C-alpha cells in the first residue's frame, strides 16, 4: 500500500521551532542611519546630483550633497545639538565661507525635520 501524498512512515521530525528576529545590537546607530537615509532621499528629490553618506563618521559632517550650483555639508541629529558641536560646525562653516558651500544642521523632532543653515560665528 502506498502512503498518501505528504505523509510518510518515518518518525516525526522535531517540530519547527520559531526563532524570534534578533534585535539590532545598537539601536541608536540603526535609527540614526535611517534618519540619514531619509535626508538623502529628500536631497535627491531636491535635485542633488551626487549624495554621499559618511559611514561610521564621528566628524562634523554626516552627508555631503552636490547640487549643480552649490554643495551642502549636512549633520543629522535627533532633538539636541550640544554647544560644543554647534561651535565646531560654525568653525567648519567659517572655513568654507568664500566658496559656494553651505553647512546645514538637520534636527529631527517628533519625526519632523527642521533645517538650520549654520553660519560662521
Detailed description of the structure:
This protein has 121 residues and is α+β, with helices and mostly antiparallel strands. It has one domain: Trna Endonuclease, Chain: A, domain 1. The chain is built from two helices and five strands, in the order αβββαββ. The chain has helices at residues 27-45, 83-95; strands at residues 50-53, 63-66, 71-78, 101-109, 112-118. A five-stranded mixed beta sheet has the order 1-2-3-4-5. The relative contact order is 0.13. The mean pLDDT is 83.
Which keywords apply here?
121 residues, 5-stranded mixed beta sheet, 26% strand, Restrct_endonuc-II-like, nucleic acid binding, tRNA_endonuc-like_dom_sf, single chain, elongated, 2 helices, alpha+beta, Trna Endonuclease, Chain: A, domain 1
Looking at CATH, which topology would you report? Trna Endonuclease, Chain: A, domain 1
Instruction: Count the E strands.
Output: 5
Q: What is the C-alpha radius of gyration, as a whole number of Å?
A: 24 Å
The portion of residues forming beta strands comes to 25-35%
Q: How many H/I helical runs?
A: 2
Strand order of the largest sheet: 1-2-3-4-5
Shape annotation: elongated
Q: Would you identify the CATH architecture?
A: 3-Layer(aba) Sandwich
Span of the ends, CA to CA: 89 Å
Largest sheet: 5 strands, mixed
Structural class: alpha+beta
| Helical fraction | 25-40%
Number of domains: 1
What's the quaternary structure here?
A: single chain
Return the CATH class. Alpha Beta
Order of helices and strands: HEEEHEE
What is the mean predicted local confidence, pLDDT?
83
Any low-confidence stretches, pLDDT <50, length ≥5?
none
GO molecular function: nucleic acid binding
Protein name: Holliday junction resolvase
Amino acid at each position: 500500500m502506498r502512503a498518501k501524498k505528504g505523509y510518510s512512515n518515518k518518525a516525526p521530525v522535531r517540530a519547527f521551532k520559531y526563532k524570534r528576529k534578533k534585535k539590532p545590537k545598537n539601536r541608536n546607530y540603526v535609527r540614526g542611519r535611517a534618519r540619514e537615509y531619509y535626508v538623502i532621499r529628500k536631497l535627491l528629490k531636491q535635485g542633488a546630483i551626487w549624495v554621499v553618506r559618511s559611514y561610521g563618521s564621528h566628524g562634523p559632517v554626516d552627508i555631503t550633497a552636490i547640487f549643480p550650483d552649490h554643495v551642502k555639508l549636512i549633520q543629522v541629529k535627533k532633538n539636541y545639538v550640544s554647544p560644543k558641536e554647534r561651535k565646531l560646525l560654525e568653525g567648519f562653516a567659517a572655513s568654507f565661507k568664500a566658496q559656494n558651500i553651505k553647512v546645514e544642521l538637520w534636527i529631527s523632532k517628533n519625526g519632523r525635520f527642521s533645517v538650520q543653515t549654520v553660519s560662521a560665528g
